[in-house]
């Protein structure tokens, strides 16, 4: 079965290697470097139809350097991921997913945190033009748009944040709620036409601020949004050094019990995590996950989780 994975941090790894801050290999090779959990060979082995690549900037990067950091990661997306790998095809609009040929893998550019553009909406419009199709307003920290899940203040969206959500609607871009404060989440649900939690699990089975409460899950389902479960062990079980398939499936079962069987997908967080599900340590291992899923769920349900729920709930052209 084909996989759509809505979150990885390969761009950050490529950037840190290029800047000499990480790894002994410079630059990393996206085709087959073992340090990259979503490299092309692994995506091919994992039968991945589309991989989402997040632009992410650490909060300690100086404000006047954040836009340059974002542009560097976008340049790496174009040069190292697309430019050197003919199998990788840029998904510039959602309909491009339908045009992928056998052997091609869709590459989707996303933004994790509005810090990159600050309060400059012309920069945001540049990101749309460059192909960003999903925007999370925050990482865990606060910024000019909203508070993140790690900010004790817990404030919601600012007027700027609300304007960004409305612009996302206009451009058929997802607003990603995975890292938002709870109040920010509810502000987005009120305004957004296209809601996704790109890499979050359930609070019911792991009480972590990065996971969703039952009320949040129900609200996303009611909006025909998407909830893509994440493979990071700490979001599967509290203080987990590793996790099992069955523990991940507890989260899936709970979302199903709330009515979300048609809203579930996967957002691995590969290249951004260091604690894994045993047997699911990189993209090449996706067939292991599919095999385990088929032991518990129907083939129709598994096809939904792997790609069809996303394809059915992605933004559609307005007529």
Automatic annotation (TrEMBL):
Q: PROSITE patterns, per this entry? A: RENAL_DIPEPTIDASE_2
Q: What's a Pfam family this protein contains? A: Peptidase_M19
Q: What is this protein called?
A: Dipeptidase
């Amino acid at each position: 079965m084909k996989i759509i994975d809505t979150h990885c941090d390969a761009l950050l790894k490529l950037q840190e290697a290029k800047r000499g801050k990480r790894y002994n290999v410079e630059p990393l090779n996206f085709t087959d470097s073992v340090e990259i959990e979503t490299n092309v060979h692994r995506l091919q082995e994992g039968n991945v139809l589309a991989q989402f690549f997040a632009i992410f900037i650490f909060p300690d990067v100086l404000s006047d350097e954040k836009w340059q950091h974002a542009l560097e990661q976008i340049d790496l997306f174009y040069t190292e991921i697309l430019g050197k790998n003919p199998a990788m095809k840029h998904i510039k609009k959602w309909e491009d997913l339908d045009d992928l040929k056998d052997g091609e893998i869709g590459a989707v550019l996303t933004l994790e945190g509005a810090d990159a553009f600050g309060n400059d909406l012309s920069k945001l419009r540049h990101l749309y033009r460059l192909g960003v199709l999903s925007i999370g307003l925050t990482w865990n920290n606060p910024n000019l748009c909203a508070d993140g899940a790690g900010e004790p203040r817990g404030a919601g969206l600012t007027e700027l944040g609300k304007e960004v959500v409305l612009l996302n609607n206009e451009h058929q871009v997802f607003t990603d709620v995975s890292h938002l404060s709870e109040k920010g989440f509810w502000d987005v649900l009120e305004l957004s036409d296209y809601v996704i939690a790109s890499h979050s699990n359930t609070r019911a089975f792991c009480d972590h601020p990065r996971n969703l409460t039952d009320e949040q899950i129900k609200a996303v389902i009611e909006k025909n949004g998407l909830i893509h479960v994440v493979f990071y062990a700490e979001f599967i079980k509290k203080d987990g050094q590793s996790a099992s398939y069955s523990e991940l499936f507890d989260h899936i079962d709970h979302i199903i019990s709330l009515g979300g069987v048609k809203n579930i997908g996967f957002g691995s967080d590969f290249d951004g995590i260091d604690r894994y599900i045993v047997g699911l340590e990189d993209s090449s291992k996706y067939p292991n996950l599919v095999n385990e899923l088929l032991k518990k769920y129907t083939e129709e349900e598994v096809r939904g989780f792997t790609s069809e729920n996303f394809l059915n709930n992605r933004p559609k052209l307005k007529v």
